[in-house]
Specification:
The structure holds two protein chains of two kinds. By secondary structure, chain A is an all-alpha fold. Chain A contains 17 helices and no strands. Chain B is of the alpha/beta class. Chain B is about 35% helix and about 15% strand. The longest helix of chain B has about 55 residues. The chains are: A mainly alpha, B alpha/beta. At the A-B interface, helix 1 of A face strand 18, helix 9, helix 10, helix 12 and helix 13 of B. Bound molecules: iron/sulfur cluster (2 copies). One iron/sulfur cluster binds next to helix 12 and helix 13 of chain B.
């Protein structure tokens, strides 16, 4: 293949991978700030740790594979993986778990499959799930959101930067503070574990943890990630298809269940704002490498993710299901692409392409 | 795709998938009215400036020729005539480098010009509504080919196959490649000529509508054409339509889609759906030939890019070396990065300034590093799908790329590689800067080469079979002779006694031989038929044995192109 011979087009290229990745990173800022606001410094510490580990892993892998290191680091894809991983895990995760998760994500899931572009699974989510099945307790222990009423009602405390850092690096709790005094169930946890105990939805919603659509604090994080997602659509970094399909695939059946039995099924908006749905729909399901690329395929892919999220939340063992749903559909993406090829211009509408 | 309206009372237009909004850069070159390039000392006129077979020279070295005089005769249906672009003396007929992506050479007639620029005797003007045959003959005589860059002989396009009724004539003034403005200038400066030509073709084909499409980034051109249409009278059926600026809306199939909502079938030609397209410069040349008796001996060339001192449009005699044009446009800047023939999306790089302008050269583009930045090394495909969004043919460029890289030729065909018009949209949007189009060209060549191999293998097999059949026949003849001899001997010998066994079992042998002979004859006939069938497709071996490998490849590519005429039309540049 004579790639050295330069041929048309000669026009300046309109995009660059690192710029695309940079847009993703920019788009993560509002949601991240909201997380820091509600869950404290741990979020940022996690991000810094994960980024450092990810870049180191990427560099190491490229070195071992005898490939140039700098372009791989410079494409920023490892950084995006690290940041997505960091916002998905609890803000108090011990540093070594972050390390394990990132090593799994970058070395095993990404580089062992051939590096950027060749990995069939979303690395951030694979790392997340790997930890979730290995350390379920640590991975589901979330701090209570930093909202005075909630803190007062439950006699909870928040962590300072130093406390967070100490917790992450040494596992030491702040003096005289027990885990119970900091953590709270996530809204999804609360919802589905109470539902399992046969509470009705109105009873669950009466708790001060609840806001308008999801848990207090949580729903706002969702909103800020949504802002970032819309920014990416506006900048053409992602198309609307996957996020809209995920939300539709989740909302439409959720809405039908809710209409049938509003006591036993949460209202649809809950699903959107309670957990990592927005983050998943806009930032994770849209990971270009592992998602579908044909327009119709993206709709199918997104809708299936939405459906799986709903199914796992209601009938599965894990409170949040975004990571599982995305990974499950990652495997199906090439097949979906194959069967949803667009009709090529000038080919008959019926003709199989 | 849903149709959309531009505004109340305007014609309904459609969209095609994908496409790009590119910075158009036309303002660099479209400000000054058309001027003429001065005559050079020496003209280099290639004998093949069209897609068909090269023209046959009808002048000899030493001959004096006049401007407009026929110097090359068309050879075959897809060939076009060649005329001298000025008066002078033929000083050589030889191979010369010509504008081509591969930098190939081709036979050219070199003319040393005198300064007289004396015209040959030209045919008389045709009437405003000429007899169709006379007009077609005039177009053929004038050697007019598509001036949008495809260089397809116009007379062929304007002669619909029997049974085909052309209802719509589309005149392509879209000019969607960035930088190029030769059509823009022509529309602004000579709108009447274009409309005269439009009427000729409208009447020739008897169409219901003649649509002149111009991208809306050329408002002056649209205005000039509209004004000329009003002042000129006889506007029946002619409509000037502003289409949204979107690359590659000047691609023939894309333009047809925009204007009519129809899609030309894959591998098909517009005539199949009752449409004929012509570039507006071609139409003006047809009017020149009809009313001035002028053959196609000049064309408008855009000289542009920030690497040229004075970008502009010039009317250039065919055969001028591009070196002289560069001088006319203020010379090359020391910051020149790349010199292109054609636009930035579909043009090709050229580093030989002695190649001449041909009928197909519409633009000379000198790019500086800011205009054509080095894309840098290609990164891994991140499967972002941006390429698929941009593809005007709804291909999956990414999949094509993976399979082309893996040289999986069956798969690339499955993914409709041959529908790719090489517009470059996918490569321009690819964030990983993968030279996608290069992979497709490579894969197309591989596919064609493999087909060629298959055909050659088939030829070899047939030759082998024919040889076997011949040997068998000779053997049979030898045996038959032997038998005849024996027979003769037997005749002379005394008749066998009754009851004795028949000597040599002559009669049964003769009977047995007949079916064998019939089988051989049948085999030979089959071979001959296959050969004839191949020959009728233009696939028979040609006198191409002594060519250099590069030329050989060119010739082979051309053979395939010719046999797949439609595919050639597919590959027509967006501007026509
Ligand atoms: S635009 Fe480039 S990186 Fe994106 S899918 Fe296409 S080939 Fe891959
Ligand atoms: S070059 Fe081919 S594949 Fe790429 S956008 Fe154009 S038609 Fe599509």
């Amino acid at each position: 293949m004579p790639t050295a011979i330069v041929s048309s087009p000669f026009a300046g290229r309109l995009n660059r991978t690192d710029q695309v990745m940079l847009q993703v990173i920019l788009a993560l800022i509002p949601g991240t700030l909201a997380m820091v606001w509600y869950f404290g410094w741990g979020v940022l510490i996690n991000m810094a740790l994960a980024s450092f580990f990810a870049l180191a892993c990427e560099a190491l892998a490229m070195k071992l594979r005898g490939r140039p290191v700098l372009p791989a680091i410079g494409d920023l894809s490892a950084l995006v993986t690290a940041l997505l991983f960091a916002v998905a895990v609890p803000p108090t995760l011990p540093w070594w778990m972050t390390l394990i998760g990132i090593v799994f994500a970058i070395i095993v899931v990404k580089q062992l499959y051939g590096g950027l572009g060749y990995n069939p699974f979303n690395p951030a989510m694979a790392g997340y799930v790997f930890l979730l099945v290995s350390y379920p307790l640590a991975m589901t222990t979330w701090l209570a959101p930093n909202i005075p009423e909630i803190l007062e009602a439950h006699h909870l405390v928040t962590l300072s930067f130093l406390d967070s850092a100490r917790l992450i690096f040494t596992g030491a709790l702040p003096p005289h503070v027990a885990w119970d005094a900091m953590s709270a169930a996530t809204p999804l946890d609360e919802m589905f574990s109470k539902l399992d105990q046969n509470a009705t939805i109105p009873e669950i919603l009466a708790s001060p943890l609840w806001g308008e659509y999801g848990g207090r604090g949580w729903e706002w994080i969702g909103n800020w990630f949504l802002l970032g997602g819309l920014y990416m659509i506006w900048r053409g970094v992602i198309t609307w298809r996957i996020p809209v399909a995920v939300l539709a695939g989740l909302l439409i059946p959720a809405g039908m269940f809710w209409l049938v039995d509003p006591q036993a099924f949460p209202f649809p908006a809950f699903h959107i704002f309670a957990g990592g749905t927005i983050l998943g729909a806009f930032f994770i399901a849209t990971d270009p490498v592992t998602a579908c690329t044909t327009p119709r395929g993206q709709l199918v892919y997104g809708a299936a993710i939405g459906l799986i999220i709903l199914a796992i939340r209601h009938w599965g063992g894990y409170p949040d299901a975004v990571a599982f749903a995305v990974l499950l559909m990652n495997i199906a993406a090439p097949t979906i692409d194959y069967y949803t090829q667009p009709r090529v211009f000038g080919h008959g509408r019926r003709e199989k392409t | 795709m849903p149709p959309y309206r531009l505004g109340a009372g305007q014609r309904q237009l459609w969209t095609f998938p994908g496409g790009l909004h590119l910075p158009d850069e036309k303002a660099l070159s479209n400000h000054a009215p058309l001027a003429s390039a001065p005559l050079p000392r020496r003209l280099i006129i290639p004998l093949r400036q069209h897609i068909g077979a090269p023209a046959k020279p009808v002048v000899a070295v030493g001959d004096r020729v006049l401007k407009g005089q026929l110097i090359g005769e068309a050879q075959g249906r897809l060939s076009a005539t060649i005329h001298a672009s000025s008066s002078g003396t033929v000083i050589a007929i030889e191979e010369r480098p010509v504008p081509h992506a591969s930098g190939m050479s081709a036979p050219c007639i070199l003319i040393e010009t005198d300064d007289e620029d004396a015209w040959a005797e030209l045919p008389p003007p045709l009437s405003a509504r000429p007899d169709p045959e006379a007009l077609r003959e005039r177009i053929r005589w004038a050697g007019i080919v598509g001036l949008g860059g495809a260089a397809f002989p116009s007379s062929v396009k304007l002669t619909p196959a029997p049974g085909i009724r052309v209802r719509t004539l589309i005149l392509n003034g879209a000019e969607c490649e960035p930088y190029i403005s030769c059509d823009d200038r022509l529309m602004r400066d000579r709108p009447e000529r274009i409309l005269q030509g439009a009427r000729l073709l409208r009447d020739l084909l008897g169409v219901e509508a003649c649509l002149i499409a111009v991208e809306d980034n050329k408002p002056e051109a649209i205005l000039a054409l509209r004004q000329a249409l009003v002042t000129d009278g006889d506007a029946a059926g002619i409509e000037i339509i502003a289409i949204p600026t979107l690359y590659p809306s000047g691609g023939e199939k894309q333009l047809i889609r925009i204007l009519t909502g129809q899609e030309v079938p894959s591998r098909g030609i517009p005539a199949q759906i009752g449409i004929v397209c012509q570039n507006i410069a071609t139409v003006a040349a047809i009017a020149d030939a009809a009313f001035d008796g002028k053959p196609l001996i000049s064309r408008i060339v855009t000289l542009t890019g920030r690497g040229l001192g004075q970008p502009r449009n010039l009317e250039v005699p065919i055969g001028v070396p591009i070196r002289e044009l560069i001088e006319q446009a203020g010379g090359l800047s020391p910051r020149l990065r790349r010199l292109l023939i054609g636009g930035p999306m579909m043009g090709f790089a050229c580093d030989d300034l002695d190649i001449p302008v041909t009928k197909a050269v519409n633009c000379l583009l000198a790019l500086t590093p800011d205009e054509a930045p080095d894309p840098g090394p290609a990164l891994a495909c991140i499967r972002c799908g941006a390429c698929a969004e941009a593809c005007p043919v709804s291909l999956l460029p990414q999949q094509l790329y993976w399979h082309a890289r893996a040289r999986d030729l069956d798969k690339v065909r499955d993914y409709n590689l041959f529908d790719c018009i090489e517009c470059g949209c996918c490569a321009v949007v690819c964030p990983s800067h993968i030279p996608l189009v290069q992979y497709y060209r490579f894969a197309k060549n591989e596919c064609l080469a493999r087909d060629q191999e298959k055909r050659q293998a088939e030829h070899a097999r047939q030759r082998h079979e024919a040889k076997e059949a011949r040997l068998e026949r000779l053997e049979q003849e030898r045996k038959a002779n032997l038998r005849k001899k024996k027979e003769g001997l037997a005749d002379k010998a005394p008749p066998p006694p009754p009851g004795a066994p028949v000597v040599g079992a002559l009669a049964p042998a003769a009977v047995a031989e007949d079916p064998k002979k019939a089988a051989i004859a049948a085999a030979l006939k089959r071979a001959a038929e296959k050969k004839a069938a191949l020959a009728s497709q233009g696939l028979a071996p040609k006198n191409t044995e002594n060519l250099a490998p590069a030329q050989q490849r060119q010739v082979e590519a051309a053979e395939v192109r010719r046999s797949e005429l439609q595919a050639a039309e597919d590959a027509a540049r967006p501007r026509e």
